[in-house]
Design a protein that fits this description.
By secondary structure, the chain is of the alpha/beta class. 35% of the residues lie in helices and 17% in strands. The structure holds adenine.
């Protein structure tokens, strides 16, 4: 099934490039995803094509107007229907106040038929946009960007690679770290010895079981050291528990 993504922005030129290379380019050419970028400005009705205005109640900064955004959403939903899309769109607004993007959200979005991404700008978006058309607010992390354009690119990249057929066999999802709940184990390729830094011997042993055990142990070690918060949700075996407890250094008895 094809995934249709409509992006609403006042900076459509920012999107020239990121979707025109590598895996996303191939996925578009194969008809697995279709990405349409729309200029919110073209949905304004005034002579100056105004997309922002002063905040009611005063204060610094401008606010993105409700009318152009709502009409743009209505337009792309109608266009999608005419193209044969049957299920309602997931309409996403990017804002630091949204739910933090993570792999489980990307998976849910990859199963949809139609995504509409609203790139907020200025100091905010009129609250009625959220009330009238938005189904989900997403943040890509606890830091402030100048707008939702980069978050939209991040979301498209992470969702597109989960659409069936987008990744080739060599890019397979099977062994992926974050989806397994753990960080990735260390990887090596030739040469065996670079300036005295050698590849762990077990990886050259030809013993597939030993390699798998070493990788699991290193994935657990990394996750324990760098992202212990992930261990709470990761599916772990009894062996994993034994491995993890070997990382814990008990205090010397008095
Ligand atoms: N807009 C500004 N900063 C953002 C962030 N971190 N995530 C999503 N949208 C944003």
């Amino acid at each position: 099934m094809m995934l249709r993504i409509d992006i609403l922005t006042i900076f459509p030129e920012m999107f020239r490039g990121p979707f025109d290379a590598s895996i996303l380019k191939r996925a578009r050419e194969a008809g697995l995803i279709a990405i349409h970028v729309h200029d919110i400005r073209s949905f304004t009705h005034d002579r100056h094509h105004t997309t922002d205005d002063y905040p009611f109640g005063g204060g610094a900064g401008m606010v993105m107007k409700v009318q152009p955004v709502v009409e743009a959403v209505e337009y792309v939903c109608q266009a999608a229907m005419q193209d044969g899309i049957k299920s309602p769109a997931e309409v996403i607004l990017f804002t630091p106040a949204g739910q933090i993007l993570e792999q489980s959200i990307a998976k849910a979005l990859a199963a949809r038929e139609h995504l509409v991404l609203i790139c907020g700008r200025y100091e905010g978006v009129d609250e009625r946009v959220e009330k009238m058309v938005v189904s989900r607010e997403i943040s890509i992390g606890d830091y402030v960007l100048t707008g939702g354009e980069l978050p939209a690119m991040v979301l498209v990249d992470t969702v597109a690679r989960l659409v069936p057929g987008v990744l080739g066999a060599s890019e397979s999802l099977a062994e992926e770290s974050i989806s397994s709940g753990l960080l990735e184990y260390p990887q090596y390729t030739r040469p065996f010895d670079f300036r005295g830094e050698k590849v762990p011997a077990v990886l050259l042993s030809g013993d597939h079981q030993a390699v798998a055990a070493w990788r699991r142990c290193e994935a657990l070690r990394r996750t324990f050291e760098r992202r212990p918060d992930l261990l709470v949700r990761a599916p772990l075996s009894q062996d994993d528990g034994v491995t993890l407890s070997s990382f814990v250094r008990l205090p010397e008895p008095p």
